[in-house]
Amino acid sequence: MLRPYLGVHCEPGNCGDSLVHFAFRVVFPACCFSTDWRHFSTRNRMAIQKVGVVGCGLMGSGIAQVCAQTGFPTVVREVSAEIVEKGLKNIEKNLARLVEKGTISEAQKGEIRGRLKGTTAVEDLKDCDLIVEAIIEQLPAKRELFSALDGLCPAATIFASNTSSLTITEIATATKRPQRFVGLHFFSPVPVMKLVEVVRTIATDPAVYEEMVAFGTKLGKTPVRAHDSTGFIVNRLLVPYLLDAIRALEEGVGSIEDIDQSMKLGCGHPMGPLTLLDFVGLDTTYYIANIMFDEFRERRFAAPPLLKRMVLAGWKGRKTGRGFYDYSDPQKPKAMKF
Ligand code: CAA
After folding, report:
1. CB neighbourhood size of 65 (10 A)
2. Does the Cβ of 153 fall within 6 Å of ligand 1?
3. How far is the CA of 190 from the centre of ligand 1 (A)?
4. Ramachandran class of 3: left when φ > 0, alpha when ψ lies in -120 to 50, beta otherwise
5. How many angstroms separate the CA atoms of 40 and 125, rounded?
6. In whole angstroms, what is the distance from residue 173 CA to residue 6 CA?
7. Which residues pair with 224 in a beta bridge?
8. Inter-axis angle of helices 234-250 and 282-296, to 10 degrees?
9. Partners of 198 in beta bridges
10. Helix (H, G, I), strand (E, B) or coil at 167
């Protein structure tokens, strides 16, 4: 009787010969001569040991901090030395706060900081096992970045995007490794928020996906599983709520303070929707709304005229000192008058 073994059939009694034959005729040449040998040799040992993060803004610096806190040597890349410096300073501030609160010791702070390396060179990411991208929410920029990384990194490296609304499949197809591509959507402030959405496309290898779910857990987050549907789970629900809060303001249903108080005190939300919009960034929300509207063509995702005008005026929320509130005194934000 013929018995299948790894796709090779062998007769009882001479299976050993067949396996030797299989090893020398198939496995050995595949390892040595295939152009894809790195993929073969690293796939089995693949466990994330070093992480790369692209982008050191609000999200990128938070992701880098959490990775370094978990124990991963982490390289974080930005386009200029000033932005790298600003992001690392922000991480140092967060770590100092943790020391003050007694969550970590001064020595642990030093170790965490020691695991973080800032750079402006994409080449410095080439020996990372996982690269998480957290750059501007624009498709051409993300595709260009991943195409460059694809040429630099071994075939085993896993790529992840922190996009909140772009289609992971469309970013992944800028590379030759869509099977090793996922979405890892973190929430702001990353060191505090417990959730990570782990997003799979129809092309994602199930083993890679499970590895990323485990990675999320290792970071101390609670991973939820989501398909590559625009906005995933959280923004599918959150974005219409935020946009409706702006529409309620436009229609004079309530003032800025009263809309925020209502959701805080009436529903137990930690922040009201207009404060949350300032916190996330009005420009970011505007981009997300436009992408979701393009995808679903539903009014609930359409950016209200007031949001568009605030972004055009450069009132992008906390980061620009002005949004629905004026942050001239950051301790006492004052509601804007429109
Ligand atoms: N970085 C690190 N830690 C921070 C932080 C930051 N930027 N801001 C606050 N913290 C920490 C504080 O140190 C404090 O820690 P301890 O409890 O250990 O002392 C804790 O968070 C609470 O902070 P505060 O007491 O100062 O203030 P708070 O109680 O108002 O909490 C908050 C702040 C956690 C941001 C809270 O207001 C909150 O949960 N807001 C909602 C945040 C939210 O909805 N985020 C999701 C946005 S959507 C998104 O990110 C994705 C997208 O695609 C748009």
Report:
1. 27
2. no
3. 8
4. beta
5. 21
6. 31
7. 197
8. 110
9. 184, 225
10. coil
Report helix, strand or coil for 158.
strand
Tokens 């994330």: give the residue: 48
CA of 191 to the centre of ligand 1 (A): 8
Decide: 192 in ligand 1 pocket, CB within 6 A.
Answer: yes
The DSSP bridge partners found for residue 317 are: 322
pTM, two decimals, is 0.86
Pocket lining: 235 vs ligand 1, CB cutoff 6 Å:
yes
**What is the per-residue pLDDT across 141-198, written as a single tens digit (0 to 9) for each?**
999 999 999 999 999 999 999 999 999 999 999 999 999 999 999 999 999 999 999 9
- Structure tokens that stand for 195 in this block: 């959730």
**Ligand 1 close to Cβ of residue 236 (< 6 A):** no
- Residue reference for tokens 């890679």: 208
Question: What type of residue sits at position 6?
Answer: L
Active site positions, annotated: 164, 185, 197, 235
Q: Whose CA is nearest to atom 8 of ligand 1?
A: 189
Between CA 320 and CA 250 the distance in angstroms is 22
Q: Please tell me if the CB atom of residue 188 comes closer than 6 angstroms to any atom of ligand 1.
A: yes
d(CA 282, CA 320): 10
- Ligand 1 atom, smallest distance to 279 CA: 47
E strand map for 167-295: 181-186, 195-200, 222-227
Q: What is the DSSP letter of 304?
A: P
Q: Among 91, 109, 192, 276, name the best residue to mutate to test ligand 1's pocket (greatest count of ligand atoms within 8 A of Cβ).
A: 192
Quick: pLDDT tens for 191-244: 999 999 999 999 999 999 999 999 999 999 999 999 999 999 999 999 999 999
Please tell me what DSSP assigns to residue 136: -
Sign of CA dihedral 287, 291, 296, 297: positive
